Amino acid sequence: MAHRIARGFARPVIGALMLALAAPSRVAAQEVIDRMMAVVSGDLIMMSDVTAAVDFGLVPPATSDDVTRTVLSQLIDRSLMLAEVERYAPPEPSRAAVDREYQSVSTRFSSPEAFAEALARNGIDESSLRATLRANLRLRAYLEQRFTTVPPSDAEIEAYYREHRERFTRNGRPQPLDEVRADVEQALGLDRRQSMVDEWLAGLRRRAPITDVYVPEAAAAPRLR
Amino acid sequence: MRRRWGLTLLLMLHAAAARADVADYLGRPVTAIVVEAEGRRISDPALLDLLESVAGQPLRMRDVRASVAHLFSLGRFADVVVHATPTAAGVSLRYELMPVHPIERIVFTGVATAPGLDDGDLRRAVVERFGSSPPTSRANDLRLLVLAQLRNRGYRRAVVTTRVEIEHAPERGSLVIAVTPGTRTTIDRVIVGTNGGFSDAETVRRLNVPRGAAFQPELLQERADRLVEDLKARGHYNARLTVTPQFAGDESTVSLTVTVVPGPRIRLEFAGDPLPEDRREELVPIRREGAVDEDLLEDSGQRIEEFLRGQGYRDATAAFTRTTQGDELTVRFTVARGRQYRVAQVEVTGNDRVTLADLAPALRVREGQVFSAAALSAEVAAIQDIYARRGYSLARAVPEARPLASAAGAPQVPMTVRIAIAENVRTLVGSVRVEGNTALTTAELTDGLGLQPGQPFYPTQLAIDRDAVQLRYANAGFRSATVSSNPGLSDDGARADVVFTVEEGPQIRIDHILIVGNQRTRTDTIRRELQFTSGDPLGLSAVTESQRRLATLGLFRRTRISELGHGAETTRDVLIVVEEAPVTTIGYGGGLETKPVIRGDAVASEQLEFAPRAFFEIGRRNLFGKNRSVNLFSRVSFRPRSFTGESAGAGGGYGFSEYRVIGTYREPRLRGTAADAFLTGTIEQQRRASFNFARRALTAELLRRLSRQVSVTGNYQLQRTELFDERIDEDDRLLIDRLFPQVRLSSFSMSAIRDSRDDLIDPRVGAYLSANGQIAGRAIGSEVGFIKSYFTGQVFRTLPQLRQVVFATSLRVGLAAGFPRQGTVLDESGDIVTGIVRELPASERFFAGGDTTVRGFALDQLGTADTIGPGGFAKGGNALVIFNAELRLPIRGGLGLVGFFDTGNVFVRTSAIDLGELRSTVGFGIRYKSPVGPIRVDLGIKANRKDLAPGVREDATAVHISLGQAF
Q1: Does B6 touch chain A (CB under 8 A)?
Q2: Is the pTM of this model over 0.95?
């Protein structure tokens, strides 16, 4: 009798336990599929913008632990810079240039179906992607137009080579300056340009109202592929 | 059995840990959509309408994105999160909204007991920088600002934290700024190194830095600046003062090292030829610049030379020397003007295709003028521009200026100026093409451009047309379109095949129109004024015009139209934020009116009258949220009793004599039409020079604006006027008013107005043209029939050479005729008989004279012998002509001078208009631009005086004091 009572008591308890375990399952199944991530001078950046940027290779590959944070920061910078681009209107990219960019993005995917699936997953269509690529081209043109550097002197090239000798090695052995002079000059020019851009961006970040609502724990980080 | 339960449990736990991919939800039917804010379910249709996701439809991420964007666009939510939950039949969506909690209160803690700190000052600093409702995203900037304020008050080790305390229903927050001031830094020691100027003790006293005082750097800097200014005022233009603080380790005390370097005292001298006193400061600005360096002195010398060359002294020199003696530096400019060159002869040659008459506007160098190379260069440029506008863009004008022989030592040298023109080929536009345009046709882009086939080619016009093409794209939503232009000149330069090359870029269209901030105003009322709808291209002019129309409604304190991007870069939401103005407005005020008027019992005489006046106005707008409004305006003037017609026994002082009460109801866009309707009731009692009247009137008016400048109105008026205290000659009264001491008038009128003035109160440019026609007749219930018209033309221009000076002119013409009616008249023998009367009732006749018509006359006191009675009192007439011309010169600080010429007269009939009888006055006045409009004092002087009555001469002048311009 006691055993029967125990068995009769056990089944409801196990059932209740299973229900209790099932309950978190129902909650966990509730998925954040999109959300606000940041607002930059009134422009909205959403979670799907972050995933799209990664899916379509619109930002450099991120290697940090928090990929979302890295990509979001890049999108915030992009938004700040685009606001400046709108003010100064660089040359409009040609349709052919936008087509080339679009082609480059679409061929990242294994098939047209995979590309179409990525577009749908991120909630954007072909024209929106084209517009984004066009904006990137304008941004690039603007940066090239605005941040030009004077050719470095021989002394500057030599100093840069000395300070960054490890970057100019072949088979683990440093290369003589005469052999890599062109590479050194290009690297120095790029470094200088990048530091100018960074300084400009820091100024933009100081001046622009930026609301960043991304919190890693709460944001149900998007699955980045 | 146990194994089976365990497996189930494991699977369920696994299921709990697993996460679905977004792709897993796509295409599944949306079974339910819930919107929640802080746990509360939202059922506001205005919010739900913004969701693009639709229950029953397959889930699409683009709908989700658009929904988030729209919700964000409202500006009411700090965060929007979209949750998806798989269900048996599909997927349910939950939009979780985090409301913005606007800061409504800023609270400081920890400052009450700290000396020198005042939470009011700190709050003001915060509000000044971040507004009264600072965004929480700026909390760190705000904290830094407060820290800076505390440091300025000596609290260098203060700690500041901020937090927001949130309240719900309504959603709002309090910003709490917690301050821990720490120890205040005090001054321990002051070391002064003064090198002249002030004594050390004086410096310490002026800086007010005794030992033990709080260290307040901003205050200290202000005192230091004042001290430096004092030194500069004494001639030490290079004076410098630095204060270097050195803090103790814990920053509780500070030692200040004050260094004053007054620099030499500078004396400025001019030698040689004279230089105008009032130009010296401007030409040699060492006092303003606070410096005497070589560059500044060289520039000053050049300025002096340029100034003198402009006066014909083309060999002028101005050399400077610097001499130091003791602590004094003397800067001396030695000016040598040389001889003055004057233009004796001007020759223009080579102008075969453009006549000298056509070139006249450019030819400013005239014989007899002093010679100025700058003026000659300007003339050359103007000639080339005239040629370029006619298609000769390659035309060149080459100037040559040569002195003619003159007696040695003569102070003036005559010059001959020759301008040789090489006209070159004329370029005509052969064709105008547009390349790269797909969204807009070539005809749409080129229609109305300045450059058209067959027309002269003008390079400046090419740039203007390029901008016009770009603007047409911007108006069609192509905000980033770029347009370049190529003149396409032929080899011989005779033909230009103009090409505009367009890179269109994407067209931006309007997704949603979001309207927020309207509490009382209906959304439809706002939407009605918008020049765009969802799906339209986002055009620049449509946005600008919508903004203007919303502002014109008068319902809002502020309106803002902004565009919101949300990922899709080809669509924008348009957000319209309005801040409603108070619906009830109350205005009141008082003043003193002064003007010359006519008085006297039998014989008129001009006297200056002072009359206190007051007004009260109350209005309520936006009735029923539809921009309807009601207004009540009342005004009363108190005039000397002797003017009101009261008996002598009433004594002196002021009596209630004039009043006006106007009630207006306004219904914009009557029954969906483009016309605004007004219903106005008026009760008034007014005084004219020769009678007083009381009037009750009801007016219904329809106003339609045809464009920004043009409007037409039509109205019906029913009024009853009662005349009293007439001072009209008995004979005249018999003629016109005996039958109608009270008259009922029923009339229709129409007006057309074109108003392009830049400012209604004090215009500088533009024109005002109006034509009004009125008809009253017995058939529509009037006791008297008449037809009446009134025309006004006013033009305002700034003078080309003197941009600040405004030339204003006005012409007003009034014409009226009474319909014949039976009345009592005097026959030739002086008997009263019944006859035909054509005159208008006195209240409808024209009068002139006074501060807004002909200013040499007192109010209503202008007229011909037929319209001024034998006693000198005006009877009014059926025709009026008034012409005014005025030059308005600003002086400084809101003060201005005016010179005017007024002429005009009132005639008994239209057929009696005689321009030879116009009476003219000239005069001048003073204007002061006050916050309530220009305050005006005018003195008018009659060109010729006549007798008011036998033996009573008109005054030569009249003074008027009033508000607003004369016209």
Answers
A1: no
A2: no
